Amino acid sequence: MSQDVMPSATGLPQRRELTTKPRFSDKVFRGIVTTGGLSSLLLLGLIFAFLAYQGFSILKMEKFSFITGSQWQVVLNDSGAIDKANTAFGIAPMLVGTILCAIIALVVAVPVSVLAALFLTFYAPPALKRFLVAIIDLMAAFPSILFGLWGFFILMPSAEYWAKLLHKYFGWFPAFKMEVPIFTRSPFVAGVVLAIMVIPIVTSISREVFAQTPLDRVQAAYALGASRWSMIRAVVLPYGRSGVVGGAMLGLGRAMGETVAVYTVLNIVYQVNWHVLVGAGGSVASMILLKFGEAGAQEVKALMAAGLVLFLLTLIVNSIANAIVAKSGGKGR
To answer: Taking Cα atoms as reference points, which of 287, 316, 314, 282 lies closest to residue 302?
Structure first.
């Protein structure tokens, strides 16, 4: 908003004229921001269009069995062409593996992230808080391959021991049942590695939500004689519950789309596996990485269709998470 003051003939300033006409710099800034936002949407739309164009023929051929089918085989006839009658593409085992690893990651990551966020917000000294926040932000920027190598060489022996304990004491639970005692490179190990990758995301979002707790509610709880932990249970956690759920779902989207780390620590086997401790499983992203190098033209289209399914699944999860975070920020519950 600009204000123009013109002197009058008597030397006194005239009444100021208020105008809502934006300045040139405001127009330039608005144009840059609008272009950036629209370019992001355009890029997202182009990715969707490319995957849909490449994978449409496979989706049309397989229909809903592409999601529910458990076979991925390419059969060639005598002339070397693909035998469409016997060729089948189904990603059900990889979808199950994707969801299973992501759920394990959330079960491990969310409690740790919430406790870390509460510590940083209400207990940590300022100097320690700044240091830990910097470390958490740095962890979020680590390449996936570093987490995968760390999980393979450092975490896997300890995770196998934890898996054996789970099987020993909770083997009666179907998810922990094992017919073959192979604990190496299991969905459990992959889920723990994904949890380490998800923790910075959930911690950062939870910390921001907890820090927005209205001060009057906090002071009212203290005035009624509540301790710090009682105040957290009665005020902070109810206020930030939706934000934590939104952060967890953003972490879920990251876990479902992870490729290299899962490929490094998980034994890719194309079969439906609901047993989290068995060394067999996979994910859609790791399957694409495994098969893309030696795939023919038809199989590449099938991999593009699998990428489209994963793209839509991740987009839906992130959209729900953004809606939940926006709701918590607007209403505080």
So the answer is: 287
Alpha-carbon span 279 to 286, nearest angstrom = 15
Question: How many other CB atoms sit within 10 Å of the CB of residue 43?
Answer: 10
Domain span including residue 193? 92-331
Q: Please state the φ and ψ torsions of residue 264, each to the nearest 5 degrees.
A: -75, -35
Contact call for residues 199 and 137 (beta carbons, < 8 A): no
Regarding whether 56 and 118 lie in a shared domain, the answer is no
Question: Which pair of tokens denotes residue 129?
Answer: 């808080």
CA 192/CA 217 separation, integer angstroms: 37
Question: By C-alpha distance, which of 192, 187, 210 is closest to 274?
Answer: 187
Query: For the segment 290-324, what is each residue's pLDDT rounded down to a tens digit?
Result: 888 887 888 888 899 999 998 988 888 878 877 77
Pairing of strands 2-4, 88-89: unpaired
Asked whether residue 3 carries a pLDDT value surpassing 80, the answer given is: no
Name beta bridge partners: 117: none
Q: Does 309 reside within a domain?
A: yes
Please name the residues in contact with 219: beta carbons below 8 A apart, sequence gap of 6 or more: none
C-beta of residue 167 within 8 angstroms of C-beta of residue 178: yes
pLDDT tens, 49-96?
A: 999 998 888 888 888 888 888 888 877 776 766 777 778 888 888 988
54 vs 17, residue with greater confidence: 54
- Residue 72 falls within a domain, yes or no? no
Residues 96 and 232 in one domain: yes
Amino acid (one-letter) located at 146: L
Q: What is the pLDDT of residue 116?
A: 93
- Domain check: are 116 and 249 in the same one? yes
Strands (E), the chain: 2-4, 17-19, 72-73, 88-89
Same domain, 230 and 96: yes
- Find, among 56, 223, 212, 187, the residue nearest to 121 by Cα: 212
User: pTM (2 decimals)?
Assistant: 0.82
Separation CA 300–CA 55 (nearest Å)? 8
